[in-house]
Amino acid sequence: MKKKFFSIAFIILTVSSITIACSSNEKNKDAKENDSVNLKVAHPLSDSSTVATEGAEYWMEQVEDATDGKVTFDYYPSEQLGKAGTMDDLLDNGVADVALITPAYYGDELELTTIIELPGIFDTVEQSSLAYTDLLTENDDFKEFFDSLNQVPMWGSNMGPYEVSTLDKKIEDIEDFKGLQIRASGNTQEILYNSLGASPTSMSSSDMYTGLQRGSIDGISYTISNWEAYSVQEELKHSTTNGFFGTTAVYMVISDKAWDSLSEEVKSAIEKANNDTTEHFSQYMDSELDKKIDEFSDEGIEMYELSDDLLDDIYDHIKEPTYSDWEDSINEKGFDADTIMDEFTENLEEYSD
Question: In the CATH hierarchy, which top-level class contains the domain 37-159+248-286?
Answer without folding.
Answer: alpha beta
